[in-house]
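Weekly puzzle thread! Below is a chain. First person to post its structure in token form gets bragging rights.
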Amino acid sequence: MSTFLDTPLHMQGHTFKNRIVKAAMSEALSNTAGQVTPPLLRLYETWAQGGLGAAITGNVMIDARAKNEPGVVVIENEQDLDQLTRWAAIGKTYNMLQIVQLSHPGKQAPKGLNKETVAPSAIGFGPSMSAMFGVPRALMEAEILDLIERFATAAAVCQKAGFEGVQLHGAHGYLISEFLSPQHNTRQDQWGGSLENRMRFLVECFKAIRAKTGEGFIIGVKLNSSDFQKGGFSEDESLQVCKTLDTLGVDFIEISGGTYEAPAMTGRKQVKTESTQKREAYFLEFAEKIRAEVKTPLMVTGGFRTRAGIDAALGSGACDLIGMARPLAVETDAPAHLLAGQNVKYAIKPIKTGVAMFDKMGIMEIIWYAAQFRAIGKGEAPNPDLSPFKVFAHYVKGNVKAMLKGRKVFGRLRAKT
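Winning reply:
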């Protein structure tokens, strides 16, 4: 069956063999040092065997002092180049491009996980999140410049390891998203205020990466269509940022939306009109608005479940790449089925523990799927019927351990100073 889905796409001298891309999901399979592990490699080999055209990794942190969760990979230098090279080699074996999602959590890191959290401004979360996330310290300009250099350094290491590109995570409430948002960024210097200033951090990160990696290396950006929060990053502003990225020469833009406080990326905030349900994708309408203004290839993630829906989206020209995430956690060979004209097997439903405070947050939509990844990494089959409450209990236990370990480390550091 041959249609738009299996049409190759060429980018920076690399070729997507088909248009299905695994969008970033939190794997939480690194060791405590932030290194690549055998389960992580096994997970990506399993996905590669399933027929993906490309895979974007989960959050890879550019600063070991700023992790968004336990078990996240960290790239600060070439120290772990051998392991990263083994990771990149998986894609080459199966003709699957691999793109590393580079990220900094900003203030979006659980209390006690890191020594402190930093953000554009010292603005905490609302009541629904303040119990789990503390008020961050506002970054100094020298620190902002250091973070830009860290993004560039991590990208250069990825290139040396053999990855085909990187993606800057500018969505879902992480640091770049915080800089973009007038709600979370109230700075009065060149990094805040006007949209031009608020997008400066993203722009400078892109420029620094391109300077260190050159042509032949893919640089993408994941961007919110909107924060879905009053006073936050709006669709009009997102469109302006997309036009700027287009002018700069960003290689692709992935459209998403929301934050932990308003988790639109899970589909909870989307308007379920009949037309939206038929078109499946959460952010396809906004992609159409962008397509009218920019030439940069667009990737839409979230909601695609049928071959017909995917063909319609690609055929309309609204997007060039189809991002799939959660279905791949329970059906690792979904790309092969879609390419054969079949639909995704499992309906994706909201993950609920029964505890209202936690069920309102987007965190369960991350950790339940991460539990599936642990199983796949062990060589086991995923379990669509896995208990959300048990997963949440395991998550709390892991964070408490990380917090206690962190306190011991911080205590030793204080004792030495």
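Puzzle host: Confirmed. Bonus trivia for everyone else. The first strand starts at residue 9 and ends at 11.
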